Protein: Sulfide/dihydroorotate dehydrogenase-like FAD/NAD-binding protein
Organism: candidate division WOR-3 bacterium
Amino acid sequence: MLKKQVLSPGIKRFELDAAEIARKALPGQFVVLRVNEEGERIPLTVADTMPDKGILVIVFQEAGKSTKLLGSLNEGDSILDLIGPLGRHSHIEKFGTVVCIGGGVGTPEIFPVARALKQSDNKVISIIGFRSQDLILMADEMKSVSDELIVATDDGSNGNKGFVTDMLKKVIDRGEKIDHVFAVGPVIMMKMVSKTSEPYKIPTVVSLNPIMLDATGMCGVCRVDVGGESKLACVDGPEFDGHKVDFDGLMARLRTYLPEEKLSLEQYEAAKPKGGCCGGKGGCCA
Ligand SMILES: Cc1cc2nc3c(=O)[nH]c(=O)nc-3n(C[C@H](O)[C@H](O)[C@H](O)COP(=O)(O)OP(=O)(O)OC[C@H]3O[C@@H](n4cnc5c(N)ncnc54)[C@H](O)[C@@H]3O)c2cc1C
Ligand code: FES
């Protein structure tokens, strides 16, 4: 790891020395990594690349044991294994006017997509939403690739009060012709975005995050129902037509291992040295 930053509470940005992936990765693709020999495979979206410097950027939320362990690494540390780029890249063309929506940690994931759409001469209206002001991420970066940036917070502590779907409805209601919507964020958010755009027949692409295991299309763990067909998010996606995804089925599958995930986190927290993972001496508890 070359650089570590804490973007907001529990959300970290790593710059990794991974030249081959940095050269090949395109917007919408992801990588899978393992921190150590016993580690779970963690799928994470390619948040950015610097191909000339051989740098791959990941941004992740410490959701449970594996992402907390990843977050405890420091500059100079190594990740045991990292594979990618995986998945199909976003379909980028000149659509006209596009709305790019990022919810929470979905914002760093929508950033390369918004940038590629801007570079392809689209008018980009970006909407990014967070629970509150202290959780706002990458607003400056999103502004730099957007013709208009709308920031929303659930509690109104910054920007507009409300959900990203309220902001999308406002943009639609002001009469702007929208040719495409791209959305990345919590499953419930992507479901509501798709429901908002559907009556207006605005093509809507969402990036799904089911539990993944091999990420090569062989285990079947990441299957999702799209338009009545079973699809594998790792090789057929992760992006799909939001108007066809069975979001309720996806949410039910994501809940499958909740008791095991909770137990695993409790055991990890209990095993940590007192004063934090570095005994309060290093930067790992940041
Ligand atoms: C294609 C893809 C891209 C992703 N990109 C990002 C990203 O850029 N940033 C980010 O913060 N998160 C991203 N995620 C989610 C991230 O992989 C999970 O948060 C992480 O695996 C959780 O592991 P954990 O052990 O810390 O938490 P756990 O306690 O195991 O789980 C916490 C939550 O993460 C889900 N989860 C657990 N294991 C997996 C797994 N192997 N695959 C997918 N979800 C899992 C669980 O259902 C649960 O909702 C992505 C997921 C996918 C599938
Ligand atoms: S993760 Fe195994 S088939 Fe997709």
User: Anything to note?
Assistant: The first helix runs from residue 19 to 24. The longest strand covers residues 123-130. Residues 276-286 have pLDDT under 50 and may be disordered.
